[in-house]
């Protein structure tokens, strides 16, 4: 058996890592809770942790037992907890992502925008939720905004919303009045670009000291709800390379190592790209990387200096199966037509990778079906 690997968090991207690293011959010790799909996988040894104290205690035990082994953080919320309460763990493990200074900077949207501005990367006008007078003035003038979190604010799961459209003063005041003190410190508002004016996409990949080892540029095609994509596909980047290289310079500047995705809004009519955020960790649809590269296992063999990867296709597609079924159903119902159902079903069938469905590890998919049925009931 190869050296053990620690995995923190088992959302869909954590489940992907659990399966891939286990198949590479490593014993994976994963920290999670029962609400994540990866808890029900046949791979790895699972440990339930309910709060920050349990998380820290378990990781301290691993450091004592295994030494400085590889440790992957797959959850954005748990990454925030570790950065805030347990920064010393970056010294006790061979941590991915790293270094801590780079991860902390990229994990904060406002700090990311500051770094981006210094490199000439475009960003949309963004305001802290406490800038009341300026925000109310923009809304009064007809400006539509979107509320999002500067950083994660929950230990497990999702906050009350991921993104929220603010199109009136009532919307804004309703959000402000409902925020806790902690939430108000982390909520920001950003200029909204309607879907018919620009598409949301990302450049996701694996990086070593800022150098790109593997990458894909993918367009978010359908959404389960605002801010949560259910279907993504590789996109043509003709004419975008210079702007994408500027975005990549962000990771190079901070010498980032690990998986990351750079999310952006692209306005085709203007040929302009606006940086939205950098997820300095594995991301939900990262399985699309495996669809593109036939030998992604090279990363598990030597994550600090992996061998070059081989591209096996250039039209990769990824689907969050159950979320996408809901997205297709909602759209088809709104259009009062069978065509969206048929085209949607076909696109699901030709996807190359799915978030939880895997014929060699069916229990996470089955548990997700049961969970959705219980919610509907």
Structure description:
With 377 residues, this protein is of the alpha/beta class. It contains 15 helices and 16 strands. It has helices at 12-23, 52-66, 76-85, 89-92, 100-106, 109-118, 132-140, 169-178, 181-186, 241-253, 287-292, 297-301, 321-335, 339-349, 363-376; strands spanning 5-8, 28-32, 45-48, 70-73, 94-96, 126-128, 145-149, 163-166, 187-191, 199-208, 211-225, 228-234, 258-267, 272-279, 317-319, 353-354. It has a seven-stranded mixed β-sheet with strand order 14-13-10-11-12-15-16. A hairpin with a 2-residue loop joins strand 10 (199-208) and strand 11. Helix 13 (321-335) packs antiparallel against helix 14 (339-349). The termini are far apart.
Task: Describe what is shown at a glance.
The chain has 377 residues and is α/β, with parallel strands linked by helices.
What's the topology here?
Elements: E1 5-8, H1 12-23, E2 28-32, E3 45-48, H2 52-66, E4 70-73, H3 76-85, H4 89-92, E5 94-96, H5 100-106, H6 109-118, E6 126-128, H7 132-140, E7 145-149, E8 163-166, H8 169-178, H9 181-186, E9 187-191, E10 199-208, E11 211-225, E12 228-234, H10 241-253, E13 258-267, E14 272-279, H11 287-292, H12 297-301, E15 317-319, H13 321-335, H14 339-349, E16 353-354, H15 363-376
Parallel strand pairs: 1-2, 1-4, 2-3, 4-5, 15-16
Antiparallel strand pairs: 6-9, 7-8, 7-9, 10-11, 10-13, 11-12, 12-15, 13-14
